[in-house]
Write a structure and sequence with these properties.
There is one protein chain. By secondary structure, this protein is an alpha/beta fold. Helices cover 24% and strands 29% of the residues. It has ten helices and 20 strands. Strands 3, 7, 8, 11, 12, 19 and 20 form a seven-stranded mixed β-sheet that branches. α6 links the parallel β14 and β15. The longest helix has 13 residues. It starts with a strand and ends with a strand.
Length: 347
């Protein structure tokens, strides 16, 4: 089968790899589309994503849609109980919890904080957890999420990043009637705009350096936009800010935009190394600064929102065949290309 494999920094290959061997308790998927994420780009560019360091060749990809190709004998009852069968359209929850850990009662329901998680397309473990940018991928039945009627395979490839955005907005608490700022209108930021609108925000302002990104954020529901590159200023006294850029230099301005006693949710990945950031306002303005990491099961909520009519298609700016995967990666990494979510067509 064909797969998109990173071997080292700046060494991305589309190559033939062995088909997966289906275990009796697994389901074999025929992958349709895969969305290129910032972590995929990081492995390609730097050989590292966060604290995960590439040691061996890694099939990338954790944002995928697929159809069921084969069902292992021991998985059949669980799959059919979920109303699925061979040919069913699905997306995949990328996380597998490993290890025998006891979570404190306060966080037992927050499985995204489990100490050891194997995530599709991640080098965090050795051996690495191979991803979904391949013709086939075997997964556990519990990872399957049925794609509702009316949601295309293309749209469903965005369920995973939309789950990240929904989780980030939920971390702010009840935002109904709130004024919300989303700083950074890349894919997660633009989806956070849609998530904030869905959660009942009174106003949502998107801020970014890219006019194209701001246009996409507006298409996803932003009431207003702020072009930082053009010298436009962030709004004042917002109730909630979702920081999706991951740029430490942006933090001071975002903190200053939040009203006293407001909430700032950090969903953009910050560098793992020491950085310089202006954080004093967190104290003097009593800002609640909250982290947001992946999601619990908001991927299911994302599919529900799509089925109810939330249109994520403005996010999909490019689709490339698997043979041209590196071109897709270059588009996704180059914000001047006008890209937002770039999909790889693996059919």
């Amino acid at each position: 089968m064909l797969a998109v494999v990173v071997h080292a920094p700046d060494d991305l290959r589309v190559e033939e790899v062995p088909d997966p061997v289906l275990a009796p308790d697994q389901v074999l998927l025929r992958i349709a589309f895969g969305g290129i994420c910032g972590s995929d780009i990081a492995y390609w560019k730097d050989g590292i994503s966060g604290t995960a360091v590439l040691k061996d060749p890694l099939i990338l990809g954790h944002e995928v849609s697929a159809t069921i190709a084969e069902i292992g004998a021991q998985a059949a009852a669980q799959v059919r109980k979920a109303g699925l069968d061979v040919g069913s359209a699905v997306t995949v929850h990328p996380a597998t919890l490993v290890g025998d850990h006891r979570m404190p009662p306060q966080t037992a329901h927050r499985t995204n904080l489990w100490p050891e998680v194997r995530y599709l397309g991640s080098a965090a473990f050795d051996p690495h957890e191979q991803g979904g940018f391949s013709t086939f991928r075997a997964v556990r039945p519990a990872q399957l999420r049925a794609i509702p009627d009316g949601v295309s395979l293309k749209q469903a490839a965005l369920a995973e990043p939309f789950g990240v955005a929904l989780h980030a907005v939920a971390r702010a608490g009840d935002i109904s009637g709130a004024d919300v700022l989303v700083n950074g209108a890349g894919p997660i930021g633009a989806l956070a705009v849609a998530a904030a609108r869905r959660a009942g925000a009174a106003t949502v302002t998107a801020a970014d350096l890219s006019p194209t990104a701001l246009e996409i954020a507006q298409a996803m529901g932003a009431h207003s936009t702020v072009n930082i590159a053009a010298g436009e200023q962030l709004p004042a006294n917002v109730d909630v800010a979702i920081e999706a850029s991951g740029a430490p230099r942006a933090l001071g301005g975002v903190i200053a935009a939040v009203r006293r006693g407001g909430v700032l949710v950090q969903v953009g990945n910050l560098p793992s190394a020491e950085v310089s950031a202006s954080l004093g306002g967190i104290v003097t303005r009593e800002i609640d600064y909250r982290g947001s990491y992946r999601f619990v099961d908001e991927i299911s909520d994302a599919l529900t929102a799509m089925a109810e009519g939330l249109d994520v298609s403005p996010m999909i700016t490019h689709t490339v065949p698997v043979e041209r995967a590196e071109e897709g990666f270059r588009l996704a990494a180059d914000r001047s290309s006008g890209s937002s979510k770039v999909l790889i067509d693996l059919r």
